[in-house]
Amino acid sequence: MNFGYFDEQRKEYVITNPKTPTSWVNYLGTSDYCLIISNNASGYSFYKSPKLGRVTRFRFNSIPMDRPGRYVYLKDEKTNDFWSISWQPVGKPLDKFLSICRHGLGYTTFESKYNSITSSLKIFVPVDKPLEIWEVKIKNDSNEKKEFSVFTYTEFCLWNSMLDMMDFQYILYTCRMGYNKEDEIIDYSIKLWSPYEPKAFFTCTNKKIESFDTDRDVFVGPYNSESNPEAIKNGKCFGSIAIGGNPCAATQVKIDLQPGQEEYLVFLLGIGNAYEEGREYKKMFASIDSVEKEFEKVQEYWKERLNKFECKTQDEKMNLMLNIWNQYQCHTTFNWSRSASFIEAGGRDGLGFRDSSQDILGVVHSIPQEVRRRLIELLKAQLSEGYAMHHFQPLTMSQGKHNIPPRERIYSDDHLWLLIAVPAYIKETGDFSILDEIVEYADSGSASVYDHLKQALEFSWNNRGKHGLLLGLAADWNDCINLKDGGESTWSTQLYYKALSEFIELAEYIGKTEDAEKYKAYREEIKKAMDEYTWDGEWFVRGYLASGKKLGSKESEQSKIFLNSQSWAVFSGAFLDEKGKTAMDSVKKYLATEHGCVKNWPAYVDYIIEVGAITSFPPGLKENAAIFCHANTWVIIAEALLGRGEYAFEYYMSFLPANKNEIAEIYTAEPYVYSQFITGKEHPYYFGRARNPWLTGTATWAFTAATQYILGVRPHYKGLIIDPCIPSCWDGFEVERVFRGRKLSIKVSNPDHISKGVKKILVNGKEIVGNLIPVELLDEKNVVEVVMGK
Ligand code: IFM
After folding, report:
1. Where's the Glycosyl hydrolase 94 catalytic domain (predicted)?
2. The model's pTM
3. Bridge partners (DSSP) listed for residue 471
4. By the 8 A CB rule, do 634 and 564 touch?
5. Residue 479 beta carbon below 6 angstroms from any ligand 1 atom
6. What per-residue confidence (pLDDT) applies to 193?
7. What is the Å distance from ligand 1's center to 479 Cα?
8. In terms of Cα–Cα distance, which of 786, 5, 700 is closest to 361?
């Protein structure tokens, strides 16, 4: 069963049945002002920080599931019947109410038809202004004149989202609402201790506001809800001014429509006060033309970001995801890390060190300058000893508020992701100058970026355990494997192996031979420990517990095999051999399902303190034997590196959201973006159900796995590698890509129907040796013909 479809032409996901099993949302806004909006117009906005700058309210994990939001109600003055343009919150019977929601790139629209009235609401955030624009259109398709009241409603949050949710005895006595009568603008201000000294306004730019309310409890009424606000029943707002209490912005505008006539209304909700910014923006967006022009800028913005990579393969869904939705999600995770969604309530905003380091991979081809800035921000959260702050907020860091973790909160992997992120940036851009940039450490001192990387390697070297493997510390990539007190992590060791290899490659490339030799010796030592202590016969163990017991071994009583230590054995480059293949065969045998590979098997049933929080989840959920999508992307990469194209593609398809569109009643989450996990096979009821959509490292890695390892178009310091690993039934594929400012049209043919191997590459008609296209060979525009073969 589906609830909608992909409109490829318009780059939209169209929801035709608003009764989706969960809220299917979109992110609007690109920098300072962001709003999250569901297919029923619910959600919230924030300015700069979802924690401290929360503009509007959302009641998380509540019932009804989706409230409040930004609502536009139409009331027929003759019949007193009223509805909302989005199906909810009024929720008219769907046999009489046609509802369509289109989530597009940077905008969402709602269209409805009810009682011969067609209406639409388009919401977007300008690229460079801190406000949201609601564009409403109403058309009378009946044969009689209609008189309407249009009511709008949104509930303000008291800026500090945590206090707003908890500290009612205090926070409910802080707001000061007002109304700029002359310009008809609602004024919201509150004196807090937030860095932003926040103020907001709401207005209609092109029609007279007949009445307004700024006190939620007056507009809605104590025994009503957003479905049936008192003011709408009353036919008029009450002119309430909230001084303390729950602030809102509600307005009433009146329109008359002759048969066939259409009217538009523009509403603005923005940052600033009603007497300055509010007045200025009201003038700026008084006409529909100015609104449309602003909207074009949003479209241009997304076009510019997404047009750096485009592919045409034999799989339509793969194309759809890679060309549109996967990239869009990558930009969202890059912007908002893991801080604001419908399930991340925003209490922990800023950047997760490991998450943000990985997030750059999916956008570096598109916004290299922003990635450079982000890398510097991340490096500032590294400590001089080499490890990193697990989580930090650049806004407060720059005010000197460092959240330096106590030793027991040091993670074994955070800092090592720098060795993935910085090389990826340089390989994409050729910008080696970043290595010389001097960046301060979070605690004391400063060093060049190159030395920051070395320091990260040193920290891990100095934090190995009894078997010579990396200590697990607070956790490794898997937040819920907590191998404290001397426990060791195979996976971190594999990441370390990869990090060392990346560094060695870089050092050799820039002529730092001594450094390269030093870290080669480290790598050899690490490999010895891996050879000796991580192979378990059919697969690699996940680590060692503090007690000395193996984790994820045939000897283990619970969870005998883990996914990550198999995929990373190969991905790290340490076991591109028979052991690696056998380990990946074990993945197929024990972990693979039709929805992707489970993270561990069999699931933990009992809590084991020395393993950690993974054991607290019921089987099949979240970190315990669920299909953790992020980890599934590395399985694709490992199979591609082993040259097994059928497997790589099969795994890619198994958890591709677009493939779940027709089973959306089982999958339940948005079929246009990746979710963090899909419930695993050991769950008694919900196998195949996705949870925690949008803000997941799956986005960045799924894009990387598909584009760089299946399609095999992979940046290198010297140029672009073409190394596809595809299903042998494919005849070929095409990629349009921008690389270091040059355009490449790459056409790959596969006449012998193989999975891997490149026989010939012609660049602008000239054959090259090998499968690396040197950057010096590239013109502004290039035609690349690739023939696969042995
Ligand atoms: O790696 C983590 C990530 O940082 C946050 N979400 C869960 C992942 C796996 O534990």
Report:
1. 301-712
2. 0.98
3. 488
4. yes
5. yes
6. 63
7. 5
8. 700
Active-site option among 479, 606, 752, 779: 479
User: In this structure, what token pair is assigned to residue 88?
Assistant: 């909810």
Give the whole-angstrom CA distance, residue 439 versus residue 374: 12
Q: Where are the alpha helices (DSSP H) in 80-238?
A: 161-166, 168-171, 216-220, 230-234
- Domains in the chain, start-ordered, CATH in brackets? 4-283 (2.70.98.40), 713-788 (2.60.420.10)
Could you report the per-residue pLDDT of 185-231, keeping only the tens digit for each? Answer: 999 998 776 666 679 999 999 999 999 999 999 999 999 999 999 99
Q: What is the mean pLDDT of residues 742-768?
A: 98
Q: DSSP string covering 2-49, please?
A: -SEEEETTTTEEEES-S--SS--EEEE-SSSEEEEEETTSBEEEEES-
Is 476 catalytic? The answer is no
pLDDT at 408 over 90: no
Owner of token pair 């297919």 = 39
The label of the residue with tokens 């339940």 reads 668
Confirm if 481 and 612 have CB atoms less than 8 A apart. yes
- Atom 4 of ligand 1, residue of closest alpha carbon: 355
Over residues 256-265, the mean pLDDT reads 98
- Over residues 481-492, the mean pLDDT reads 96
- Give me 235's structure tokens: 């036919």
Ligand 1 centroid to residue 222 C-alpha, Å: 41
DSSP per residue over 390-417, as a string?
SEE-HHHHTTT---PPPGGG-BSSGGGG
**Mutational test site, ligand 1, from 378, 416, 478, max ligand atoms within 8 Å of CB:** 478
Burial of 223 (0-12, 13-18, 19+ CB in 10 A): exposed
Contact 325, 362 (CB under 8 A): no
423-471 per-position pLDDT tens digit = 999 999 999 999 999 999 999 999 999 999 999 999 999 999 999 999 9
Contact 696, 339 (CB under 8 A): no
In 317-360 the beta strands, taken as DSSP E runs, fall at 351-352
Q: Which two tokens stand for residue 64?
A: 């009804």
Does the CB atom of residue 485 touch ligand 1 within 6 A? no
How many angstroms does the Cα of residue 352 sit away from the middle of ligand 1? 10
Buried b (16+ CB within 10 A) or exposed e, 298-322: bbebbeebbebbbbbbebebbbbbb
352 pocket-lining for ligand 1 (C-beta < 6 Å): yes
Cβ 354 under 6 angstroms from ligand 1: yes
